[in-house]
Structures are given as C-alpha cells and as structure tokens.
Amino acid sequence: MPIISEILRRRDELTAIRRDIHAHPELAFAEERTADLVAAKLAEFGCEVHRGLAGTGVVGTIRRGNAPGAIGLRADMDALPIRELNDFAHRSTAEGKMHACGHDGHTAMLLGAAQYLAATRQFEGTVHLIFQPAEEGGGGGRVMVEHGLFAKFPCDAVFALHNKPGIPVGEIAARAGPLLAASDRWDIRIKARGSHAAAPHLGVDPFVIGAQIVLALQTITSRNLDPLDSAVVTVGFVNGGTAYNVIPDGLHIGGTSRSFRPQVRDLIERRIGEIARGVAALHGASAEAEYRRNYPATVNHAAETEFAAEVAAEICGVEHVLRDLPPSMGGEDFSFMLNACPGAMLWLGNGPGEDGCVLHNARYDFNDNALPIGASFLARLAERFLEKRAL
Ligand SMILES: [Zn+2]
Ligand SMILES: [Zn+2]
User: Fold this and answer.
1) Nearest CA among 66, 90, 86 for reference residue 16
2) Helix residue ranges, H only, the chain
3) Which of 90, 230, 251, 377 could share a disulfide with 19, CB 3.0–4.6 Å?
4) How far is the CA of 245 from the centre of ligand 1 (A)?
5) pLDDT at position 356, please?
6) Are strands 172-173 and 321-322 parallel, antiparallel or unpaired?
7) d(Cα 166, Cα 170) in Å, to the nearest integer?
8) Is residue 390 scored above 70 in pLDDT?
9) Looking at residue 391, what is its pLDDT?
10) Whole-prediction pTM value?
11) Which ligand ends up closest to the CA of 359?
12) What digits encode the pLDDT tens for the residues 336-359?
C-alpha cells in the first residue's frame, strides 16, 4: 500500500500525539490544551499559525511559490461528555469526558500531514490546515465560517476525513452528494389544565394530548413525506407531572429530526407545529412548537469527491475505495464549510467496530493503524490538488 514513507516513518510519533490527545479530552469550545498542542506542533513544523478563530480554533498555513491555488484540510478537536470505560494506558484522565468520536485521530492525522507538507513542500500554492472546535453539537464549524474562515484563508476547495468503524483499516469511502443529514432539535410545550387525578373532567389532561402528539408525529414520515425521501422524527424525552394523583398543567416533549433535502426540512418543521397546535386544540388545550435548525445536510460536491476518490485510490488501491456506502442520518458541522466552499468529506476505515468500538460508545478508541493512511491521504490530496491548479 503506497503510504507516504516519510509519514510511515513517523508512525510512533503520530500514535504518541493521538494517545496524548485521547488522554486529555476537552469539550466544545474548551479545547485549550489541544489547541496549544496543535499550535506548538504546527510552529515546530514550520507552518504559519493563526489562533483565536471561533475561540479555540487553529489554522496552520504552508505556502510555496506564488501560485494562487489554495486547499483547506479540516480536522475537529473536541471530545464528548461520556465517561470512558476503557482501561488502557491512554484512557481519559478527565472525568466524564472522552474522545469517543475519533477527533483525537483526526487532529493527529492532520498534524502528520502538516509535518510532511511543511518539510517537503512538493506543491505550488497554499495549504490551510483547519483545526476546528466544537463539532459535537456546538457548531464550531459554523462559527469559524461566520468569523471569516474563508475570507481570511481563501480556499478553492476544502476536505475532511472522518473515521468510520465498520470499514476495514486501509479502506476509504467516497460518496458524491448527500453524505450526512441535516440535524435539528425541537420542543413542544403543551398548556392544558391541571386537576385532581380522580376528576379528569374538571381539567384538560396534557398526557392524553401528548400521547396523541407523539403518535401523530410519526405520520410526518409515514404519510406526509414522499416515500422515496428519507427523514427521521424521533422523540427524545417527554417531561411532565410530579405525583401519582395529580393531572399537571402542562407537558414538555422534545426530540430531533433528520433530513437531506431543504424541502423535507421545511415540511418537518411546518408539520411539527401543525400537529402540536392541532391536537392540543382538539382537546381544548394549546401548544407551542419551537424548531431549531442545527446542522444542515453534509452534501459533497461531485467534482471534488471524484478528485478525492482518485487520490484515495493512489494511497489505498482502487479496490479499497468504497463508492457505494449509503448516506447516514447522523449530522456534521463540516456541512457549514461545504455550504461556503466546494469540497468533500470522506470516511476512513477504522476497523470492524466490534466490542463497543463504535462512534460515541464509552469503549471506543481510534485505530492507530489508520493514522499513517489518513495522514498520507490528506497530504497527497494537497499535493495533487495544487499540482492540478498550478498546471
Ligand atoms: Zn461524533
Ligand atoms: Zn465526529
């Protein structure tokens, strides 16, 4: 497998960096130690270092010559609020925090690519290495874009690599078009009328209304949506009531919805409100629905995906580049970068995903064998992209 030999030689160093980050996880927008480590390494490698974008964001820049081409490579740095259940030496030292999504690996791989690119500079143009905070729900990618990421660091294309358990190490998956869903959150607050549990006729019972709303919400995907479209509406909690013998005044229902097409997102938002208000009115109560658009769908651009797939084939062999992996209903804030700049996110094989080694599981661990592959892919992507631009 033609992994870049300079990167393969530094495999132990990359592994040490990855495990150090794993042992010191930090949550969204609080990636202080991680950002310090990233900035120090980038400076050591000879990159220009910019700090402070979206708070803890770091951008490293490597230039060669005066060619105008520029590529962005993005990694995320944040961990999750999970108590790690692993007992290996590099387990989390921060109680209740854990790198359970492999962002420790993403950061280490991009540092590996940075080290190689800064040392060899076999390209004409500019490479921006984007280390973003707060991917896990905080929208650090959105904040970076809003704070002028692509105005300060103009890129012709931007790429990201996310590890994926269930795909063997040594394989990369590339898919043009929708890759990950839009991820939104919503709340429904029912205002009914409390009464004695033994005298329901004197009040308006919010539980009966809530139960009907929960069931009716499922008709959005089963009856309102074109059967050929994909979406999910999931109730995450129902909160209300305090006593066995009291009918409360209200009920709070919350959940998430996932979709790909903007029209489907609009439909879900509209129907959640109509169902909540309509079912409540049917029973002489009222309800308010609040819908918050969190991450848009991650949609890979076709030409950039094809280009990245060719580079993946160069690193992994064409038979190890998966082209037909279905999209996932998970969400990613790299979507904000893809809405501002052409590019693609690819999946990097992390191994079988057995014994709880799946994303967001308390026993997850990034597979260090994937580090030189991911770092080689990112580095070669920059070299090939800028070679193409310089022609
Ligand atoms: Zn995650
Ligand atoms: Zn992730």
Assistant:
1) 90
2) 5-9, 11-23, 32-45, 103-120, 140-146, 149-152, 206-219, 262-282, 302-316, 334-340, 371-390
3) 90
4) 42
5) 80
6) parallel
7) 12
8) no
9) 59
10) 0.93
11) 1
12) 999 999 999 999 999 998 888 899
